[in-house]
Amino acid sequence: LPFIAKDRYNERYRRRLLALQVGAQDYVERIDGGPYSREEYREHPERYRSVFATKIAPYTSMLVNGIYWESKYPRLMTAKDLAHIQRQRELKTRMLAIADISCDIGGSLEFMSHASTIDSPFFYVDAVNGLEHKDIEKPGVQINSIDNLPTELPFEASKHFGDSLYPYAKALALGDLKHPVLSRAIICQDGALTKQHKHLEESLASGLRVVNTRRKRVLLAGSGMVSQPLVDYLASSKDTDITIASNDLTEAKRIAYQFPNTVAAHLDVSDSAALDQLIKDSDVVVSLVPAHLHPRLADVAIRRGKHMVTASYISPEMQKLDQAARDAQVSIISEIGLDPGIDHCSAMKIIDEAKERGAKIRSFISWCGGLAAPENSNNQIGYKFSWSPRGVLTAGLNAAQFKANGQMREIPEGKLFENRFSSVPLYPGFAFEGLANRDSLQYADPYGLDLDTMDTMFRGTLRYSGYSEIMDCLLRLGLLSLDPKSHVSAASATEFLRRAIGMSKSSGDLRHFIAHRLALPTNDPLLDRLLLALEEFGMLSTDASPVTAATSLDAMSKILQNSLKLQTGERDLVCLFHEFGIENLDGSYDVQTSSLVAYGDAESGETAMARTVGIPAAIATRLLLEDAVTTRGVIRPTTKEIYEPLLKRLEGKGLVFAEHTKSGVHNSLQRRMKWT
Prior knowledge:
By secondary structure, the protein is of the alpha/beta class. Helix content is 31%, strand content 21%. The strands form eight sheets. The chain has a seven-stranded parallel β-sheet, sandwiched between helices. A six-stranded mixed β-sheet has the order 20-21-16-24-25-27, with helices on one face. It has a five-stranded mixed β-sheet with strand order 3-4-7-5-6, with no helix packed on it. Helix 9 links the parallel strand 10 and strand 11. The termini are far apart. The model is unreliable at 1-9 (pLDDT under 50).
């Protein structure tokens, strides 16, 4: 390789295309610096390393890769090698394209992740940012990795191939197994290995593993705010094809376009025939549609014998399908997002470990919240939406019950905000308040806990201090009504506000009218905060964008989705915190905590909420595809066969729970929470 030794382009080569054939002697070297030996390299490849990335790639514009490679050999190039070249501006005309004839997925070229197709022959790898795409305008090396490329040969070549194969096919058809070519190709004959394949007997003795090479198929119903990380995770498995079915086909295509094994389809849940076809053609259904539509998908999935995954709470309608799912040998893994979801997994790990050592759970407190990062909580409620706005608003209307300090507590519907926990001191750096989360008592049985012997059983939702006061005002003003009579058709958000609170043109100014409605003094600081909040929501502006919705709450969902969304460069925060009061066999008392704090990525725009909902749901889907879940019916991730591998795989994605133990009941969080 005379010209590779120095990076010079003289007039002799400036306008020439230089083509080189390189062998192992050119792209590997002994680690100890000794001379290359072909025989030694084949017998002891661990003594060698690839120097292709430093000696050849920086001078190569196009690589045609046709080497034979096994995992024992060093890779020709790693993803890190490619990223190093792509970062150097002076090498911007190098490693522009790769024609990978070998088509070894993840093989000699680590970043060659999949076989391309004749219809879609190219994809691009941006190793610097760890991305694959199909946009010719974006940075990356173009890769052609069509594994069945010979099928594109012209008729004459195909005829030549057929003429060459015919004698062997004829001999095989006539049973002429002594034909020299066929005799060498036969592995087993008359129930035994042929002589040249006797070395396989050791593998037979140790047991052969049958691998199912059929591609797995996932139907993702819905393409909402948490779907991107879910698809990222599933699409990384090259044996899996994904169909993203959504009523927002543009968004579904945006995500599907990023992956060669993913397609988009239109979803109309009311179209029974189309829905049936989509589910019939899948192995697992992941439902990210609104929660009230889950039973419709689940019913079809059960009838078709397909497993299903959803992050939503198990509703009474879903619970009614439990026996039908069992009878059909179908697993419907529900409550497998963040909360509910990995909160179940981390809780059950601690509970099962305590039981195994003979200890008893005397109290259980769980807090979880999806919030804006502190530096981006710059509005009167300290909140920005990283998941369904409607889900956030309706959660504040729920009734709740829990057990605290030995007493049963109930909060009626619509009274959560005024019965808030004004201080939840999890971390000194966070000013948290909290709301009781639905029926905490219902989880005693799934968790295997004895409610009668427990002092506290509580699950709550975290918010920043000041959230509940403003939300309670909105509720009392009628802005969060689900009454169908509150149907909204207004010319603007300001008009909607005035209609919803019953304000006419003769009602005077807004401040005095709202103060009267809420029975607040006109100089009350809460009134100042409320008016500032309405202004931040865009409900006091002259903007004439029409607002149409089925209810006042739905109208508020639309308004807040626009006004309180994370902006470019902003990030969210997820905080999950469990506390267990544990009585040990010797009578001593421990307080054990398990916590997770995760931030979104401001640069990429991926939210922590999307990661902590989408990735757990994707892992559960993968477990079903691997036949790793044997429990049937409508289930939660509260069994070891689900939560153990799920928590382990979450760690691989950087979502790790921190566990700590302190002795003495005085360390208990329940003694420090302040309930209004």
